Amino acid sequence: MTKRAAKRKAAVTTAFLLLFGFGCRNSPHEHFAFGEPVVLRDDAVLVRENLTDTQSIHHDSRREVDIARLRVEWLAAEKSLADAQLVAAETRERQDGLAVKYSRFLELDARVPGDKGPVAPEVMSVWENNLRQYGAQTARSKAKVRLSLRRVKPLRQKALVLGLLADRPQTVSQEENEP
User: Fold this and answer.
1) Model pLDDT, residue 85
2) Domains in the chain, please, with CATH?
3) What is the SS3 assignment for 78-140?
4) 3-class secondary-structure state, position 173
5) Would you say residue 30 has pLDDT above 70?
6) Whole-structure pTM value
7) What is the Cα–Cα distance from 75 to 155, expressed in whole angstroms?
8) What is the mean pLDDT of residues 58-85?
9) What are the residues whose beta carbons fall under 8 Å from the beta carbon of 178, sequence distance 6 or more?
């Protein structure tokens, strides 16, 4: 390593350490030119003379924790609902796509001249079996959406009461309007 590179590395390291040191100061006071401390943040007083003030502060902090826990639970439930709705939409799309392919296959079979004969029943049963499987998968995914909704609705109501929700959320599907 050359002297120039070593000096550059030392300068960069020094600049980084200075910036890091000044950026990470954790003092509630900052001293200015005349030595007068200026309060940058107001730390909470831990012990109050008045018991009701202390109880009020404790009650407020407990309520804040409860609201934060509810918000985490509610948002996790909303995420699981959104995931379930996505899976339901994807399975419905796959089922509809297979139904379109099956209809095209039937149209193509109808155009084939009569001397060739119809398509073998085994081929038709494969198509119908696939349609039944996709239909069952779609029904399961819709059931998961309904279960997620059952879990989300009370949490939405609690969030609305606590003021976490301004109004009813926009519904993505018609299933949310069902009781």
Assistant:
1) 97
2) 51-169 (1.10.287)
3) HHHHHHHHHHHHHHHHHHHHHHHHHHHHHHHHHHCCHHHCCCCHHHHHHHHHHHHHHHHHHHH
4) coil
5) no
6) 0.59
7) 9
8) 92
9) 146
> Which of the two residues, 172 and 130, has the higher pLDDT score?
130
The model's confidence at residue 33, banded by pLDDT at 50, 70 and 90, is very low
Residue-level pLDDT at 14: 80
Q: Encoding tokens for residue 149?
A: 């909704």
DSSP track, 34-78:
T--EEESS-PPPS--S-HHHHHHHHHHHHHHHHHHHHHHHHHHHH
> What values do phi and psi take at 37, rounded to 5?
-75, 135
C-alpha span between 95 and 137 (Å, rounded): 9
Instruction: Dig out the tokens for 23 from the structure.
Output: 């950026």
Written as six digits, the tokens of 119 are 């398509």
